[in-house]
């Protein structure tokens, strides 16, 4: 019977026309070599000159270095050709973790800082300093001259060999070696820091290397276990999330706070850089009130102990009341830590240490780390208090409220069909919330420890881009309308704010001039109207016609801003110019009763303001996505005619998308105007519109977290690349990354659930789709 | 009136370059229903490729005899066209074909193309230079007046641009409407699966469409560089305009792209006749015209699709 069916089916088309095998190979080899040549042109800092156009080309291609790049091309060729042979080895357990761990170590060695006082702080500069230093341990000397690379190479090669050959004992040995390597990097870094005396060092290269080696060690342990053991270890991780929700947070929080108390620096003005205990003795008799002084001495430890015990108990016993207690304790401990840091830095400012002008200056990373750790302990309590308990049957209770795949004990032991694939390390219901809370802790307490450069990047680029991407996601991702002029609404928001604070050449009536924060509703309103004004006449246009009209709209707004000297002060933008009656937009401030907050030049303050906006908008949009309107958008996006036939007023729905997207960028525009103060029409060029579309698509159309991740990634990348490649080449690498990303992961970084369902059919659990419809409204 | 013809001639010159670029957009759109945002970089590469060849032939350009001029122009145009065609072909192979195979969402193509566009323009600035006003060697007097229309001078370079653009457009029109390749392009753009069943190799047809678009764009790059200047970022502004022109005429429609390009160029220049408008408002007017036309004819002046153009 099988023979008969085989005879009747035609061979696939590719086989009929298949060119000879050799032609394919030759073509592939040529393509790979060409890729190598292109890579050779990309790498390096050559640039042509007016007189000699071929210079850069010759420098990059006709030098001996080309051999290396051609070699890369040949390797690529071999990899592609023998891919079917290679694949089985790549899917062996432990291989990908090994690779990513090794990459982390390579990145740590090549990209990150190892000792800040040494030149640019990178590994090579540190190595130079170490080789000239006299009183430094032999281990550190060896590490920075050859050991770092040698141990990495040995571990990767032997590790890969043990995975490929299936040698379990060897894998255990390599795991131990990886741990040793992690310890060596810690010791070497410590030796350098000790030899360097009291110079301030914020470098994190060693930490990344340790992390990488630990991942490698874990990978090797995984490869050393049997398949049955792996299923069990996955189940174990799952159980930790499912049956002791919050346990991972307790561990992370405790470790983080311990590190903060033991290792990290708490106070670092000028020449000082003190740990917790040293800070305690530093502030003896300085006028620090006894409560805060005690915190530095013993109260902090006590708080940590209480928080860990209560959170641990709450998580372990799954007690809801205890969970709430733990949450309150964690929050209180965080607040007390913040209070201590505030008082400490205030006293530092009174003494004008390191030219401090106010509180919150000269603080080390330790306090913030402790805040993060204690916050996570409280978060663990929160999870314990709110997690759904597994019911007696272990089936129904584990379904999360939002309908994630249920994680139950029967699933874990599981039949080998279907559900086996779905069990990952992070499919448990508590997992998503755990990750979310970790992200919140990072968003709250990481930025203060960053350098002022990164703080500015975080606020003025990453934060605002996220806001814009979330807004555009409504239009592009949900309603499926390609908007190439989104920046226009941002511009309108910014100029509206500038108008109502009286910064433009034309002034509103006197009684209408308000403070920047109060202009936000006005900016939102104006943007909303602009969105309607653009949307109403154009929405009957189909896809790409709409794209070009919005693009035109963006250009019209931009050029009008440039040309209307009398209204916007033209291309010079808003500067403090009495002749033209322009001034920069003032910084936001709040004066309500006893509450006085003024946002100054410190970027951190803006970060927290932005975070409030972002959280409010994201929460609102999450509700919106599942609402009647959100489902109507999805329907219009997928099939406009069908949507109309089911009674959706498509014009209204599309207009709503435009208006909501536009008003989001109104918020962003108002924030931007008062944060930056001085801006010109050049902030609103067409390229930026396209970039925002790129954020949304790169992150994953239609998914809020995707849009934010895409925005963060694509705004972080140029700042990161600034130090890795010649500045002029930045865009080239970004372009290459974007292109490769789209080729290999066209759905984006974090694809939306609903979109994933469209691409892969019915693979996703049907519950995800049906639960999107509230019980009151349908089915 | 003299002024009117002056601006009309300027507009036609500019418009015919727009039309050549717009044809690249419209061909690709017609066959794949996607906006090839990297086409502006294809155009840019044409200018660089032709510069290298022209520079090689005439050096600084001072000693070129009159009879050599047409040859140099032809060689420049061909070399620009070939360079751009190579880039366009590579682009299709590397960036578009894998996405097509995966059935990626349309916007993924768009963003991939934007990535490719960043990549190509920055690579050009790295390999050549990052100056924004590179000039071609002057191998003939661009400003020689050939003849006059009502007192308005028609200059040599303008005549070259308009005539060669017209020749290429006629050639393309015949190619699409008469030849076998043109028929397969129309078939694929009308209904790709059916075309495949009729024995048309879709991949090959798409590749060739990209090559044709690249040839026209590269020639336009040479003409543009000769008329104005060329630089690594020269593609962006004309690219956006040409895309607008393609939409204006009805994207996917070849004659529409020609008409849209010429119209946009002419309108952009004629608007300067209106008192109170200076050069800084031309782009605004261009886009307002575009929006206005689409308001009343939502699928462009001539409607869409390559197939229906014939």
Largest sheet of chain A: 2 strands, antiparallel
Oligomer: heterodimer
- Average residue pLDDT of chain B: 87
Strand content of chain B: under 5%
**What are the low-pLDDT stretches of chain B, counting only 5+ consecutive residues below 50?**
306-310
Radius of gyration of chain B: 19 Å
Strand order of the largest sheet of chain A: 1-2
Helix fraction of chain A by DSSP (H/I, runs of at least 4) = 55-70%
What is the terminal separation of chain B in angstroms?
37 Å
The amount of beta strand of chain A, in percent, is under 5%
Q: Any idea what the radius of gyration of chain A is?
A: 29 Å
Please outline the major beta sheet of chain B: 2 strands, antiparallel
Which helices and strands appear, and what pairs or packs with what?
The complex is a heterodimer of chains A (779) and B (310).
Chain A: H1 2-8, H2 13-17, H3 21-42, H4 55-61, H5 66-81, H6 83-90, H7 95-111, H8 123-132, H9 138-165, H10 168-195, H11 205-224, H12 227-243, H13 247-262, H14 276-282, H15 290-317, H16 320-350, H17 365-386, H18 409-413, H19 419-422, H20 429-445, H21 452-478, H22 487-500, H23 519-538, H24 543-563, H25 565-568, E1 589-592, E2 595-598, H26 603-626, H27 628-638, H28 640-645, H29 650-676, H30 686-699, H31 704-721, H32 730-744, H33 753-760, H34 766-770
Helix pairs in contact in A: 3-4, 3-5, 7-9, 7-11, 8-9, 9-10, 10-11, 13-15, 13-17, 14-15, 15-16, 15-17, 16-17, 17-20, 21-26, 21-29, 21-30, 21-31, 22-23, 22-24, 22-29, 23-29, 26-29, 27-29, 30-31, 31-32
Chain B: H1 2-32, H2 39-58, H3 68-102, H4 106-127, E1 145-149, E2 152-155, H5 156-178, H6 180-190, H7 192-197, H8 202-227, H9 236-249, H10 254-270, H11 282-296
Antiparallel strand pairs in B: 1-2
